[in-house]
Write a structure and sequence with these properties.
By secondary structure, this protein is mainly alpha-helical. Helix content is 49%, strand content 6%. Strands 1-2 form a two-stranded antiparallel ribbon. It has a two-stranded antiparallel sheet with strand order 3-4. Helix 1 crosses helix 2, helix 2 packs antiparallel against helix 5 and helix 9 crosses helix 12. The longest helix has 28 residues. It is elongated and about 90 Å long. The two termini are 42 Å apart.
Length: 357
Amino acid sequence: MLFGYPIEATEENWVHDSLIAIIRNLHQCADDGNNCTWPDIIPDDFKDNYARRRKGLFPKLEAYLEALNTLTVNEKAEVLECVDTQNNIPGLLRGECACNLLEDLPENIRSPLQTIFEYGFDMLAQKQIRDRSYKKIFDQRREGGGRLELVCPFCGDETFAAPGPQSIREDLDHYLPISKYPFAGANLRNLVPMGHTCNSKLKLQADPILVDGNTRKAYDPYSHEGTKISLKSSRPCEGERGLPAWEVEFDPDGEEAETWDAIFKIRERCKANILNPSYGNWMEEFATFYQIALPNNSDAPADIILGLQKYLELLPNKISNQNFLRRATFEMLAEKCQNQDVRTIRHVQNLIENASS
C-alpha cells in the first residue's frame, strides 16, 4: 500500500462488537439448553440499536442457535474459537497466528453464521457508519489545511470521491473475505475503501494471507506507514518505442510488498496505465521548463543535472495525480545523469533539442 488509513476510522465499531456479543450469548444458550428470546439475547448496551430489528435479525439468530444445537461440544468450541482468531486481524496479517476458515467449520453452522454477519455488514450502510468512517479517512488526507485529493492507496491511480450526501460511495472491501472469515464480516478493522478496479476486477475474493494452502504476510491497512515506489533501476531508451525499460521496486521491500503486487498487479499497472502513456508528456513538460528555467545555459551535462534538480524541487511530493511516479521517474533520470550515464544524458539532451527546434 502507498499509505495506510487512520485507525480512528474504525472506532465506531459497535455493530461488530454487538454481533460478537450476541454470538457468545447464543453459545451460552446452547450450553444451558435455553431458547433464543428477543430482546434478551441482545446485550443491554446494544438493545436500543436493535429495537426495530426483530423481524430482520431475530430469525437469523434462531437459525444459528438451531444449527448450533446439532453440534458436538468440541465442534461448538471450535466455532467459538473462531470468534477470536478470525478477528485477530493484525496478528493474521503479520503471520503471527492462524485461524480456521468458514469451510473448516461444521457444515450446519456455515450458512446461518454467514447470514448474520452479512446482515451486520448491511447495517453499516443503513446506520451511515461506513460514511462516517470514510469521512474520517478523507479528512486525515489533508495537508497544510487544504484538500488533498484522495486516491486508492492500493494502486495510487484511482481517485476517490469526496464524502457527502451526493457522492457515490467507494467500494468497501472485506480485506479478509467474508466468504472465508465471516466473524470479521462487520468489523471495521477488516473493511477498507478501495478503488473499483482494485476491488471488483483484481482482488475479488482473493485472500491476502492464504494462497494455495500457504500462508503469507500482508500489509495492515490501518497500521501501514506507507510504501514508496522507486524506478532507479530502470533503463532509459531500452524499452519499446524509445521508452525506458521500467523496473518498479518497492521501499521497503518484503513479503508484504510482494503480496500487494500479487493481488493488485502494481508493477504491471504502473507501467501500462501510468508510466508508458505519461512519459512522453512528462518529458515534454520538462523540456519546456528547462528552456524557461535555464534560458542562457547549454545542454551540457552539468546544466542537464541542474535542470533536473530544479524540476524535482517543483514536483509535489504527493501521491495524487500520479505524482508519485512522475517524481520517481525524474529521480531516476537525475541520479543516472549525476552518475555520468552517457546514454541517459544524451536522451535528455535530445528531448531538449527537439523541444527547441
